[in-house]
Task: structure prediction
Amino acid sequence: MRDLNIFRLINKIEKSIINNSLQKFSSEVVSFFIKNDSRFYISISDEQAENKFPVIYLVSYDKSKILEERLQFENIHSAGIYFGFIKKGVLHISLEGADFMRNHQILPDSNKITINEKGEKSILYGNDILKSVITNIPSNLKKNSLLAVINQNNEIIAIARAEIDYSSFNNLKLNQKIARNLVDRGYYLRKKQ
Result:
C-alpha cells in the first residue's frame, strides 16, 4: 500500500474551485482573501484519497512563509484553520471557515439564519431546520444558498442549504423544512470514534 501524504499550496484548478465556491457567498469574500494575501493549502492523505475529499486549510501570509520553510524539511499534515473540503469540484465550507468569515465580517447577512433553543437542540442531533425554530431569516433568501445557522448566543452551530426562497416562507406550515443541515457542531459527538 502506498504512503500518500501531501500538504501543499493549492494549484490553479483548486484555486478556481475555491474562488467559484466563495463567490456564491459574495464577491466581497473572494476579494477579502486576495487583498489579505491569504493562502489556501490542500492536504491529501491515504484516508482522504480513499474518500476523494481533499481538505483545505487557510494560512495567513506571514505564517505561510514559516510553513513553506518547514515543509522543506518536515512532513506536515495540517496547518492553519480547517476551512473545508473539496468534493465533486465544490468547496464545502467548514464550521471553522464560516466562523472565520463571520469574525472578519465578510459573511453576508443573506447567508445567516437564527434559530431558537428548541431548534438548536434539534440541529445538534443532525436534524434539518424547520420553520417553527426560525427567529430571524433574511428577506433576500434564495433557494440553494449556503446558510450559517446561528443560535441565541450568536454562535454558528451549523451550515445548511436553503430549500426555499424567502417569498414562500410565510406560506409554509410550522413543521415544514426551510433548510437542509449539511454539518453541525453535534457531528463531532455523533461520529464513530
